[in-house]
Amino acid sequence: MSANTILLRGKPVAEAVYDRLKPRIAALRGQNIIPGLAVVLVGEDPASAVYVQSKTRTFQRLELVSETFQLPASTSETELLQLVDRLNEDERLHGVLVQLPLPGHIHSGTVLERVSPLKDVDGFHPDNLGRLLTGQPRYIPCTPQGILEILSYYNIATAQRHAVVVGRSPIVGKPMMALLANKWDRGNATVTVCHTGTPDLAEHTLHADLLIVASGQPHLVNSRMVKEGVDIVDVGINRVPDSSPKGYHLEGDVATNEMMGHAHAITPVPGGVGPMTVAMLVNNTVLAAEISAGVPSHDQVIF
Ligand code: NAP
């Protein structure tokens, strides 16, 4: 039995990232540069509004620039592309983030591709995802990058282990797969990727030493689907309706309670991966400001 399952909380890891960034922010300030982020929010998606507020608060706390551009849900794709073009040219803003999901009439791929690859701090542009795959990353997508920070902080090994990733989205699953499989100190794992085309999910998750679940399905993975001593990262944030005043509570993609005493370690939901996504967004925005200022980067890695 893994009697004491370790809770991999994100907050101390995020604070360690901010502490690491402070001298870099100060050095930029010495050159009269304040890292700046533009956040574009289209429509009224409540979860997106919460994420954007949390990003804004963190940027304010670190005395960085964060400007939110709130557009109505009726905004056309052409109007949104025009705003992105304008932000690409704005020298005060080093990062441009278009909050997903976008309303159905807007093709998100077209919009994400319009963001300048040098300002694409989300790391979703094909240029940046391609760089990740070829081992010369510029901006690593925030959520998988944050997961690697958690694993490193809590000394959870990746090398020589079997990592199973559930989910293949371009935001989480695919970059996670590349990062874990790459030959570097935070990867070197043998990686299996599962999705809705996987006939028997448990057949794979049962063989995981390290399990990353990003499916968007509440409690998809239970304790019968994993071996004892597994390390689990639960990426899911699912709003499950209930009779509480808020009308919902948050659940991960993993049945966490069942994992206590069974898994070696697990990220809680909320409070696990969530804080890391914002921390890595700050990291990528600082990196973007350094790149635009021609400062040699402290942060770029080669696989
Ligand atoms: P997504 O784009 O909906 O992708 C979900 C992936 O999971 C897809 O690849 C899908 O397979 C797969 N999947 C769905 N049901 C499955 C099942 N029953 N068995 C196996 N695979 C299944 O979602 P996402 O953007 O990657 O996000 C995933 C979750 O993470 C969501 O809950 C989201 O809210 C959360 N999230 C959290 C953070 C954070 O900061 N903590 C950041 C990003 C996302 P197919 O490809 O076959 O459809």
Structural class comes to alpha/beta
Counted beta strands: 11
Radius of gyration over all CA atoms, rounded: 19 Å
- Looking at how many chains there are and whether they match, the oligomeric state comes to single chain
| Order of strands in the sheet with most strands | 1-11-8-7-5-6
- What summary fits the major beta sheet? 6 strands, parallel
User: What is the end-to-end distance?
Assistant: 36 Å
Rounded average pLDDT = 96
Given as residue ranges, the uncertain stretches (5+ residues, pLDDT < 50) are none
Work out the helicity level.
25-40%
SSE order, as H and E?
EHEHEHEHHHEHEHEEEEHEH
| % residues in beta strands | 15-25%
| Number of contiguous helices | 10
Shape: globular
Bound molecules: NADP nicotinamide-adenine-dinucleotide phosphate
